[in-house]
Please model this.
Amino acid sequence: MLKLITLRLLGAIPTLAILSFFTFFIVHLIPGSVAQIMLGEAASAENIAILEAELGLDDPLLIQYGRWLGGVLVGDWGESFRYQRAVAETMIERFPVTLQITVFALLLSVVFGISIGVLASLSPGSWLDRLLITLSSLGISIPSFWLALLLSLYFARQLGWFPVVGYTPPDENIFKWLQGLVLPAIALSIPSSAVIARQMRASLLGVLQSDFVVALRASGISERAIILKHGLKNALIPVITVIGFRVTLILDGSFVIETVFALPGLGSTLVAAVLFQDIPIIQAGVMIAGVLVVVTNLLVDISYGWLNPKVRVS
Amino acid sequence: MTGPTINVAQTPPAAEVISGRGRFVKRIIKQPATVLALVYVVAFVLIGIFADVLAPYDPMKQNFSAVLETPSLQYWLGTDSLGRDSLSRILHGARIAFWASSQAILIAVVLGVPLGLLSGYVGGWFDRILMGFNDILLSLPGLMVAFGIIAVIGASLSNAMIAIGIIFSTRYLRLTRGVVLAEREQLYIAAAQVTGVSIPRLLFSHILPNIASPLIVQTSVLFGAVILIESSLSFLGLGASVGIPSWGGMLNEARLDYARQPFLALPPGFAIMLTVLAFNLLGDGIQDALAGRESVTDNPRPPQPIPTVSVVGDVSPQHGDVADEPKKALVLQDLEVRFPSLNGEMTVVSGVNLHLNVGETVGLVGESGCGKSITAKALMGLIPPPGRIVAGSLKLNGQELFGSSRAQWQEIRGSRIAMIFQEPLSALDPTYKVGDQIAEPLRQHDHLSHKQALTRAIELLDLVGVPEPHRRIHDYPHQFSGGMAQRVVIARALSCEPDVLIADEPTTALDVTIQGQVLDLLRDLQAQFGMSMLFITHDLGVVADICDRAMVMYAGQIVESAPCESLMLHPKHPYTAALLGAMPQNQKRIGELANIRGQVPQPWNLPTGCRFHPRCTFAQELCSSQSVALSTVEVEHHVRCLRAEELQLELRQ
Model:
């Protein structure tokens, strides 16, 4: 298993290298000059030239890339054009909130999705199955930020069970922290739950048709054990792939939902950065997303190894 | 894929194309959800085009005497904080959603499809590098990529759509390349036969028709996804500019005002959800119709417990039974199994009687599709639904089993009747260690602890001749060869020392050298455990090797039943004689009857009279009109043939 992890991590290096190059290059794709953006419209040509020299924008591209990458690796992610503040500092402050929502929503999606999928496949074609399929079609199509709006309207504003807006750090009050994350995570998890449920249902129904399930029945193994022990483990293998795909989509959703609940995550920071062409922030965002994708793929691979002994041995 | 590879250069006849399309349309019409989705999509497009005419008010016109109103006759969906009519804004929002999404999809197609064609066609390094980039872009969060692109080119609705177009072009690239690669594979083979045809031309004339349908499905689903992203971006203020009636923007305004007028959030949200839903359902529906499926929920059902059956006919003694008969372990009488079909229920197995004496091995022989396996499954209570046992009685040591509850069957299976299968590797769960799989019935039936069960599993593996059993219990099925895996399956079947073992072609899938070993093993184990065995096979050689008695099945009936030697040397039924003649070792001796002409009739198309008569060399007029009963010709020798007494079917020695 350790060998597998090492191999996968090494395999991710070229991906991250290519991604970092493109990320670095964003700065040079902007029409006009970075120095112009930093100094504003009124800046004189002379000042712009001085700043450009200071930033090393005259150097050959590869040297600039090397310098930038070296900085990124040691945690120097540059300075925000807009706030004249270290990007790393902003990210350390903002990213954990987004990550918490994403992870919380992912856990809910996995729990909801797998349970609903198993429930639907227990009696295929029944009214319950049809109801769950219909609900999952709706769930896939629902914009999660709209759902968040409706949930907050009813459960936060009307009933007062949850805070309408805002975030409490976990070290301040762990209960309030959790309370503040419930609605965003639920809203964010619905579309993913629906997709996972559909995949789970199809996959489990497929496994329950297989020869070894007939053989288990012929051994008198209880239907419960067949579904929960054998069916689930085999059926999860393709579902894991889908769960992996959902991580980036949940992250995307989190950027939007943070706005609804005024949560101090990456979402609002990135939106502001887009509007002000605050490129260093965007670059940091892309790189963090890239690392998250690599970590997700690694976790997916490890889960495969755990579920499928054929992968583990070879 | 394409049709036969040989006539690649020809187009299919026009009639075929039309009937193909007709079928497709028929399938679509059979799916009410798809039809509804199609109607919605058409309405959406029309509203998008004619929003100006349809909207009751100017979507930008403010009316400060009517702000934040609830729905009324004047304002069907109420008004917003500036007194603008929500309905008019929703209709105009449809226009923005339609045009913006079309723009994004167009960009995605224009970028993705040619690159995919090129990548698939050129192949090699170009393909690998391009796909590498494509996969990186595909794996990143789409919104994050959109942020990056919009940051560079500036925030506006058109730019947002360019960003989305770039992101979704990765899907088209991947799809197109896949189709090209699949076609290339086929065409190169075909091109070797059709000389003088240029491969690029052949390739492109074949790809365009083949790519059309997956492209339509993809576009339908992506249209929904684009609308979701467009509304997200507009909600964040990175898409349609403030004030413009886009659905996402309306939701953002609703967010600011919903404390005062919660209804504002409903219309745009529903508009987005229903539109996305319609495109998703349409995509699914088209895909199902293309694949020839009728609906998404049309999945096969897993087996259900057997319903209670009425036992018809009284339990009369078997033909040729005598007073001091051997003790019977298993008695099956008058089994009838039916499966539903398009023309009502069809009877797959009828009037089957069989019994197994204690310690006896009985062969059940016949070609594929004659009902052997269904009979075996009936003995285990495992007829796959929607099939069902409509009549019959099954007694295990005198206890009636048909009509047992699911829980009762679970107790019987594996402990009193066990089964082994044709494909040992697919009879084992690939994700669990074999030791655990052998231990499982022991824990279920004999309530052994995990440790005790594993100890027993080691003993059993040793018994069935798996070397180093204490080590091998920790291996997974894929680490076993076919022969060894069959030994594992046998060990599991014997774990609870059953009275009856049903062996469903257990040696068919194995190498010839291994077959003999497994047969020897089964013979030894049977003697050791004193169990009865029903051995299902199509190989009369195996029957001669291991069975005491044999029964020959044809088209769902038993046609001959006799002690092995009698059956082999003096077959009474022409079908048995034909099977014997088809054995390779007998072919040399007789030189004729090498194969049996025709095929086993299908259950819904059984011939009248004797079911074998259309294939029988000795058939007479009477054979096709009079149904034939099983009659006794000698002690323990029964045959279902009108001419059994007169025919001399002995094989020349």
In short: Residues 97 and 265 of chain A are 5 Å apart (CA to CA).
